[in-house]
Every structure is written in structure tokens, then in C-alpha cells.
Amino acid sequence: MTAALRSGRFGRGEVRRWLKLTERQLRSWERQGLIAPAQSYGFRDLIALRSLVKLRQDRVAPRKIRQAILALRARLREIADPLVELRLYSEGGEIRVQVGGCAMEPVTGQLLLDFGAEELRRLVSFPQPDREPAGRAAADRLFEEGVRLEQQGAVEQARQAYLRALEADPNQTGALLNLGTLYFAAREFAKARDCYQRAVASDPGNPLAHFNLANVCEELGLRLEAQIHYETALRLQPDYADAHYNLALLYQSCGQPLRALRHWRIYLRLDPSSPWAAVARRELERLYRDTVVGSGEPRS
Fold this sequence. Notes:
The protein is mainly alpha-helical. The chain is 66% helix and 6% strand. Among the domains are: 3-112, no CATH class; 239-300, no CATH class. It has helices spanning 12-19, 23-31, 43-57, 62-75, 82-85, 117-124, 127-151, 155-168, 173-185, 189-202, 207-219, 223-236, 241-253, 257-270, 275-295; strands at 10-11, 40-41, 87-91, 94-99, 102-104. The longest helix has 25 residues, at 127-151. The protein is globular, with a radius of gyration of 22 Å. The chain starts with 9 loop residues before the first strand and ends in a 5-residue tail after the last helix.
């Protein structure tokens, strides 16, 4: 259950659990062309799915989302994927998009705030989207190249692709996570920790970034820091089975058996049939014998 097991792709069921999506909802978005059908997802896909989830929570009709996406692709040709590269949000049931520091109605292109002539000339030129999305797009392409190379076993070439991705966009979370994983696998723990710390700073709401940082902190003997990041990962994603597993082991090794018991129980509810479940059951039974049963506390 280490960061080295993470490939940068996430299974359909795993993503549904993270985002609390039903299979029916996911298939509906696929049929409507809002996302491409897939059995696994990369980091860009997760960003798009999160945007859709937020718009759905705000009760925006899928028809309006599709209309806005098509309009933005036609209007801002340098934007390949509006759900990923722009901030779409709901205002009174209507979709708005943040462009060049102001709100825009995506279908008409109308700016929704009043500015002076000089400010309007600056906004119409869209200086930020010309540069930043281009850098992000280049970083994303290099990240995807790194994933492909890594899957082919070309580890050094993958590492170089991730490094180039970070030159294009120092905050490319996927590249930071995968580069950190390569360093972790090579036991270059200080470099791995630096990558994961940068990933957390870039995307503090990313549970995987906190989980991986906790892993490498454990390897470095930084147990308190590891505990903090496992707990943060679980605050962000309470059903993160791997984090419950690792936190149970950490509490157990720190002499906190009752806290370990709680996380073993949750892990087994979340992941009862994995190969790791046998280890969890064994440790849970041992802790029951040594603590709960031995202390006279009734077993639940």
C-alpha cells in the first residue's frame, strides 16, 4: 500500500467512490458527450469530473453544460478542454466562466462586469489564456507522455518527461505525484518528499497527495507528520481504504491500539475482499485479544 503502487490512472469504481457518483450518472454524462467513455481516468479527467459534479450539485441542467462547453471551444480556440482549463460555475442556475479575471457568459461571450476602456482592451486580448493554458496544455501532454513511458517500463525517460512537464507548469500535480513515486521507488526519499510537498501546496484538497506524503514521511521516520497527512487524506476522502490501512498500522506501531482498531474496522468494511484484508483481519484479531478482550471491554 505504498505510493510506488500508484500509476497515475484511477479505476472507474475508485473514481465513482471518490466523487460519490452513481454508474447511472457517469453513463449519462458519457451519452451526452460531456466526458469520454473510459474504464480508467487520469488527473485531467478527474478535474473535468469534479467540475461536472459541482455543476450538478448546483442543479445546472446537462443541456446547459454541453451548450456552454461547445460555445467556449468555438470562442476560445486555444482552450482544448473548458472543464479542465477554465473555471465554470453556476450563478442563479446559469453557467458563468472566469476568463481574464472577469466573469463571462459562455454562449454570448458577454462580459458581466463594467470596466474602463483600457481594462476592456486588456481583457479582450485575453493575455492570460494565451500563455497559461498553453503552458498547462504542454505540461499535461508531457505528463501523459510520462505515464505512457512509465507503463512501458521506460522509467528514466518517464522521469525526464515529468521534469519537462514541471518546467512548463511547476504546479502540474500529476507530474509531481508521479515523479515523487519514481523517487520513492528508487528510495530517494528526500526528493520524493519534496515532490509530494509541492503537490500538497499546489492542490491541498488532493487526498492522494497527502497520502503519498504520509507514506514517505513514514519512511523518513517522521511519524507525527505522517499521521497528520493520513488524517488529512481521510478528512478529504473518508472512504480512502488505503489511508485507513496505513493509519491503522501507524497507530499500532505507536502503541495506540484502540485508534488502530477503529481504522482496521473501517478498512475491512471498505475493502473486505482484497489481498490486504487477510492482514487486516489478523491484526484486528490480535488487537482484540491483546487489548479489548484482555481489558474486559465487550467486543462489538
